[in-house]
Automatic annotation (TrEMBL):
This is Carboxyl-terminal protease. Belongs to the peptidase S41A family. GO terms for cellular component: outer membrane-bounded periplasmic space. CDD domains: cpPDZ_CPP-like, Peptidase_S41_CPP. Residues 1-21 form the signal peptide. Residues 667-693 are annotated as: Disordered. InterPro entries: ClpP/crotonase-like_dom_sf (IPR029045), PDZ (IPR001478), PDZ_sf (IPR036034), Peptidase_S41A (IPR004447), Tail-specific_protease (IPR005151), Tail_Prtase_C (IPR020992), TSP_N (IPR040573). GO terms for molecular function: endopeptidase activity; serine-type peptidase activity. Keywords: Hydrolase, Protease, Serine protease, Signal. It holds the Pfam family Peptidase_S41.
């Protein structure tokens, strides 16, 4: 039951929201926001009040446990050992920075440490909800304390320091200790705003809004969310890439894999009580309407031309998204407060016909890059690939229509680049976290004649070899693959195959090291009840291996030519994850390398090192990396305004110096100072901003060197003769 206190708070919210909706057409945005913020002092009721696990989730927990036991690569045993690891992961999920729970809370919760396996087997998962109830209590206490701190004067003259990274700290012993941690946390938040030239009044207003919003967001947690937290603690105890998808997350997974959704083509976020437009998709319905723009706020949603307008102020962002999404060809009406600098936008209703939206930002796209090297001009193609997407992986094979595919898109781009007479091609896989296994096999097939691409082995030792069956190549010219520490899974398969076949050179950082294969099981199919939607389970079923027999698990793919990085692979890669599977090897597959590029590498590395010393822009990058490494391990910041300001000025001076050197290289006028508020660029500056980044340009020079020595093999002979000297 909800107490009278919370009932009155809820009633205040309902009355306030209703008033906003009733008067929306007559009030300015400022008045709407004033009314909403007026009720913000009455915080919403805790989500955990009266929250209980739904019956369907009790059954889902048993089903997930069964599937993990039967189908996961490691066939985990649900015993006290797994239960204790689940406990650790659950605590880590709620409070990774040790900023909410007390040491006594952890001791109390430890009584459940060996109960999680029993909870899954019996369906008595109340333990998960009891955890959340205590966490929410502590969370609200902390932010209410933070709000009270804002009633005090701000003083940034003291020589205090704030340790912002508490991941390895001891749990706070009592309220006094935790209050002191949070006092400094609030002060650091305020100081960051002061350094952004905010007045004390503005600082307090912004932080009050931020802290109240934090409480409000957690209060919107529902039973499905808590069950999801619990099941993902269980899956994380098994391995880091096994996870449970709530029904809503499963829907988003399908969208991310297919790069398609049906809706209005807008990216939304939650800002305080409002749903705000972050951006609109190019050529999507929202953009084509001409009436929806970035920073507009949605306060109502109606279905069709006659449906009632539903007030969505204070709603969860994903609930608003659910209302707006719908079948292509159907109508949705949005009540919008247009963004204006004066904050006086008048609410209006916009009618939009939903369409199928292709998320082009995540699709492969191409460009060309001109490289001048030793008096020779090279026209290089660049294909940037953010992920290995495949609509076929997200829907049944019986579904009709045009299927989105990485390989199909890249093949089209290569054909277009060929028409531009490219001399070489760079596939940019930086920050590509992977995706469809079948797509990466097909993509490698565009660059090799035929043969094995990757090997997969399950826990029983059963081996399968995924091959490119189609003879012939779409592109057989000079090739480079760019990777970094965030290139994972399918990206590593591609880079490893190109490297093993000698088909191209790999440039960048050591890759992430995810060498496992996951399968997604739609749990609804097991329950056989069309009325119940319980989500899906992504579970690890295989480890994959390069054609050489080496696993990429933990170790990743080492590039042929390495760029500097601030990330330590042991601290940020797969090997840093809890419960990651181990590295191993199997037998080499039967494959025929196209070439051996190893003979070229000493020359290419030498040329790269020479440029590093002479290229000022690349030297800046190297210096930034070294400075970042020094800062990385510093987990303490000063809370003194003058000290922080001096450091910021020092950084700004360095940035200005480097920006002007870069502008000089681009033929632009130098800046007198950095303009932080500048929103508009000249057409010339916009064109220059589209130029390749320093690492991509260096990769282009390395590929140009490879093209040159293939055309002039005598350069290698000359280099080897003069190895150790500076003459070439």
């Amino acid at each position: 039951m909800i107490s009278k206190k919370w009932f009155l708070a809820l009633l205040a919210l309902i009355v306030s929201f209703g008033a906003v909706a009733d008067n929306a057409n007559n009030n300015s945005q400022k008045k709407v926001q004033a009314e909403v913020h007026e009720e913000a002092y009455s915080l919403p009721a805790p989500a955990s009040l009266g929250m209980e696990p739904e019956t369907k989730f009790r059954e889902t927990g048993r089903l997930v446990a069964f599937l993990l036991l039967q189908s996961h690569y490691s066939h985990p045993q649900f015993n006290d050992e797994l239960s204790k690891e689940t406990f650790r992961q659950y605590i880590k999920a709620f409070d990774p920075n040790r900023s909410y729970f007390y040491a006594a809370d952890i001791d109390l919760l430890r009584g459940y440490e060996d109960k999680f396996d029993d909870a899954l087997r019996t369906g008595k998962i109340e333990v998960a909800y009891e955890f959340f109830e205590l966490f929410e209590q502590r969370y609200r206490e902390r932010y209410q304390f933070a709000l009270k701190q804002l009633d005090k004067p701000l003083n940034f003259d003291l020589n205090e320091e704030y340790a912002y990274d508490r991941t390895e700290a001891e749990w706070a012993k009592d309220k006094k200790e935790l209050n002191e941690i949070w006092r400094k946390r609030v002060k650091n938040d305020a100081l960051n705003l002061k350094l952004a030239d905010q007045s004390n009044e503005e600082i307090k207003d912004k932080l009050k809004t931020r802290y109240r919003s934090a409480i409000r967001r957690l209060s919107q947690t529902n039973s499905e969310d808590v069950f999801g937290y619990f099941m993902n603690a269980v899956s994380s105890a098994v391995d880091p890439h096994t996870s449970y998808y709530t029904p809503r997350r499963f829907e988003n997974f399908a969208i991310n894999m297919s790069l398609k959704l049906q809706g209005i083509g807008a990216v939304l976020t939650q800002e305080d009580q409002f749903t705000k437009i972050v951006s609109v998709v190019n050529k999507g319905p929202a953009q084509k309407s001409g009436q929806i723009h970035k920073n507009d706020k949605i306060i109502g949603v109606a279905q069709g031309d006659k449906g009632d307008m539903i007030d969505v102020i204070g709603w969860r962002n994903d609930d608003v998204v659910d209302l707006i999404r719908g079948e292509a060809g159907t109508v949705v009406r949005l009540q919008i407060i247009p963004y204006t600098e004066a904050g006086d936008g008048m609410p209006k209703v916009v009618r939009i016909v939903r369409e199928e939206i292709k998320l082009e930002d995540q699709a492969a796209h191409s460009s060309t890059m001109q490289i001048e090297q030793d008096g020779q001009d090279y026209n290089l193609g660049v294909i940037e690939l953010p992920s290995f997407y495949s609509e076929a992986a997200a829907r049944s094979k019986d579904a009709g229509g045009d299927i989105t595919s990485t390989t199909k898109d890249v093949a089209r781009l290569i054909k277009e680049l060929k028409k531009e007479s490219i001399d070489g091609l760079i596939i940019d896989l930086r920050n590509n976290g992977g995706g469809s296994l079948n797509e990466v096999v097909d993509l490698v097939g565009l660059f090799i004649d035929h043969g094995p691409v990757v090997q997969g082995q399950d826990s029983g030792g059963k081996l399968r070899i995924l091959k490119d069956q189609d003879k012939g190549t779409l592109y057989d010219g000079p090739l480079a693959v760019m990777v970094n520490g965030s290139s994972a899974s399918a990206s590593e398969i591609f880079a490893g195959a190109i490297q093993d076949y000698g088909r191209g050179i790999v440039i960048g950082e050591n890759t992430f090291g995810k060498g496992t294969v996951q399968s997604v099981a739609d749990l609804d199919r097991y329950l056989r009840n069309p009325e119940i939607n319980v989500g899906a389970l992504k579970l690890t079923v295989e480890k994959f291996y390069r054609v050489t027999g080496e696993s990429t698990q933990n170790k990743g793919v080492a590039p042929d030519i390495t760029f500097p990085t601030i990330y330590d692979h042991e601290k940020y890669g797969e090997s840093s994850y809890d419960n990651a599977l181990s590295w191993d090897t199997i037998d080499t597959a039967d494959f025929n390398p196209v070439a051996n590029l190893d003979t070229y590498l000493p020359y290419l590395k030498y040329r790269h090192e020479q440029r590093k010393e002479k290229n000022e822009e690349f030297a800046f990058f190297v210096d930034d990396v070294e400075r970042a490494k020094l800062e990385r391990d510093n987990k303490i910041v000063s809370l003194n305004y003058e000290k922080r300001l001096a450091k910021r000025k020092q950084n700004d001076e360095l940035r200005l110096k480097r920006e002007n050197i870069k502008r000089k290289m681009q033929g632009l006028e130098p800046l007198a100072q950095l303009d932080k508020d500048k929103d508009e660029e000249t057409e010339e500056e916009e064109n220059k901003a589209d130029e390749p980044d320093v690492l991509l340009k260096e990769a282009g020079k390395i590929l140009s060197d490879l093209i040159t020595i293939k055309q002039k093999p005598e350069l290698i002979a000359r280099f080897e003769e003069n190895l150790g000297s500076k003459e070439l």
